Amino acid sequence: MNISFDLDSTLIPNGKEFETEKRNRIAKLFGIEEIRKGTHELISDLQKQGHKIHIYTTSFRTKRKIRLTLKYYGIKVNRIVNQTENQNVLKSQNINSSKFPPAFGFDLHIDDLKGVGIESERFNFKVIIVKPSDKNWIEKIKNEIKNKRNQ
Ligand SMILES: [Mg+2]
Q1: Residue ranges of the domains in the chain?
Q2: Class of domain 2-149
Q3: What is the pTM of this model?
Q4: How far does the centroid of ligand 1 lie from the alpha carbon of residue 10, in Å?
């Protein structure tokens, strides 16, 4: 499956909302952002299972900056969609939703926002909502992916 991850409050914390991986001072200087603890393990496990992993964010960070942060933690993803691209594509397809993963070929999207969950019902796409406070987020994602595969 093509699986996309949101960034803010899903993989990248807003303040101290979840535990993060270690980051050294030099990385900080270069603008490498903090990332949720376990992100590398989760993404690499999913990739080993044959899934393609993408980033789908409504932030205006550049793709280069996002890729640099991920690379620092040893994470490689296929495609990055930021808000600049998201806005252009959704507008051109007349889709009135903050996110619409199928427009980018993503089969399943992972996000923290309930609103995206509501959009998923209205626009008929698949999401897994994980809260920043959810300590078992990795298990939750892995289990739901297994279930969705069998649907
Ligand atoms: Mg978010």
Answers
A1: 2-149
A2: alpha beta
A3: 0.96
A4: 5
